[in-house]
């Protein structure tokens, strides 16, 4: 059971599913949190992609240096 309050007043009471179905204050808060989570997830994905590219470049440099050292 979830109780949703706004400025000290109870505005909604119900289960998670019930409150989402009503599309009231709880729904709006939940949707905002979902958008934030998606945004954060995309930022993490971009950071990981950049890190992966940098690791690949570093690996190539190491391989080239090793080949040059063998000559």
Characterise this structure.
The chain has 71 residues and is an alpha+beta fold. It contains two helices and two strands. It is rod-shaped. The chain starts with a strand and ends with a helix.
Report the portion of residues in β strands.
15-25%
In total, the number of strands is 2
Separate helix tally: 2
Give the structural class: alpha+beta
General shape: rod-shaped
Order of SSEs, N→C? EEHH
Portion of residues within helices:
over 70%
The profile of the biggest β sheet is: 2 strands, antiparallel
| Cα-to-Cα separation, first versus last residue | 72 Å
**How many whole angstroms does the radius of gyration measure?**
25 Å
Question: What is the residue-averaged pLDDT?
Answer: 95
In short:
It is built from 2 helices and 2 strands, in the order E-E-H-H. It is α+β, with helices and mostly antiparallel strands and 71 residues long.
What tags apply to this protein structure?
alpha+beta; 71 residues
What secondary-structure arrangement, pairings included, does this model have?
Layout (H helix, E strand, L loop, with lengths): L1 E5 L2 E6 L1 H7 L2 H46 L1
Antiparallel strand pairs: 1-2
Helix pairs in contact: 1-2
């Amino acid at each position: 059971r979830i109780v949703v309050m706004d400025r000290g007043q109870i505005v909604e009471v119900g289960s998670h599913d019930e409150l989402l179905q009503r599309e009231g204050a709880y729904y709006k808060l939940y949707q905002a949190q979902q958008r934030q989570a998606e945004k954060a997830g995309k930022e993490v994905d971009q950071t990981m992609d950049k890190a992966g590219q940098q690791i690949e470049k570093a690996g190539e440099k190491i391989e080239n240096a090793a080949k040059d050292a063998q000559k």
